[in-house]
Design goal:
CATH architecture: Alpha-Beta Complex
CATH topology: 2-enoyl-CoA Hydratase, Chain A, domain 1
CATH class: Alpha Beta
CATH superfamily: 2-enoyl-CoA Hydratase, Chain A, domain 1
Number of helices: 11
Number of domains: 1
Order of helices and strands: EEEHEEEHHEEHEEHHHEHHHH
Largest sheet: 6 strands, mixed
Number of strands: 11
Radius of gyration: 17 Å
Shape: globular
Strand content: 15-25%
Structural class: alpha/beta
Mean pLDDT: 96
Distance between the termini: 21 Å
């Protein structure tokens, strides 16, 4: 099995209507195109199912939430069209989260890099542990966080987004991310995180579906143009990934 097809996405829904979407990849939960497509499809499908009351988005493992884009797949991009297709995968996941009528809880148990920060930002309410440091590493390899940028900037503001995007080799601790609004709360360990996520999910599952759907529309007001914007941003990354600088950095 190649790194393009390794890993998986699973989804379960319990009797209370709490749907849990879990992704995994052996390379630190990185995101090849196949997993991105599965995440977008799964979130969209669950959002349309009446049985779903609330969604939890999480990854497997204890210390890494998501390492971002798959470097193996980035190395394999041969032209701008392929680059657009790959980076559009992140756009599709973010837009699936944005348009999903159900509230999405993010469970971030460890470090989040690049696209992983974008996933966390695309959830509606995100909880993390003290191990959940964040970094936008894209500029260091000559790409820039163009696709995930709108989602991250929406959560933490332009100034904080700029700090992450420009100082691309620096991890910011989970407490920094919470102070700037990416995380709603930082828990001391995995057990505490799991308990907090489940408690919130249970409260939301017992809440009014109509009220939560209306609240979600309010929270994401002004983002309808992202269907076009994020694909345009994907084209920028898809072009830059072909540069000699990026080829050397990824290699």
């Amino acid at each position: 099995m190649s790194n393009f097809t390794a890993g998986h996405v699973t989804a379960t829904t319990d009797a209370a209507g709490i749907a849990t979407v879990t992704f995994f990849h052996p390379a630190h939960n990185s995101l090849p195109g196949a997993i991105l497509a599965q995440l977008a499809e799964t979130i969209t499908r669950l959002g349309q199912e009446e049985a779903t009351k609330v969604i939890i988005l999480q990854s497997e493992g204890e210390r890494t939430f998501c390492a971002g884009a798959s470097f193996d797949e980035l190395r394999a991009v041969a032209d701008a069209a392929q680059g657009l297709v790959f980076f559009s995968g992140f756009a599709h996941v973010i837009n699936a989260c944005r348009t999903c009528p159900k509230l999405i809880i993010g469970r971030v148990q460890g470090k989040a890099v690049g696209g992983g920060v974008g996933l966390a930002a695309a959830t509606d309410y995100c909880l993390a542990t003290t191990h959940a440091a964040i970094k936008l590493s894209e500029l260091a390899v000559g790409i820039g966080p163009f696709v995930v940028g709108p989602a991250v900037e929406r959560k933490i503001g332009t100034s904080a987004f700029g700090q992450l995007a420009i100082d691309a080799t620096q991890f910011r601790p989970a407490e920094w991310a919470a102070r700037h609004g990416l995380y709603a709360e930082v828990l001391p360990d995995l057990a505490s995180l799991n308990a907090a996520v489940q408690a919130l999910a249970q409260r939301l599952a017992a809440s009014s579906p109509e009220a939560m759907r209306e609240l979600k529309q309010v929270l994401w007001a002004g983002t309808a143009h992202w269907d076009t914007l994020l694909v345009e941003r994907a084209a920028i990354s898809g072009r830059l990934v072909l540069s000699e600088f990026t080829r050397a950095a990824i290699g």
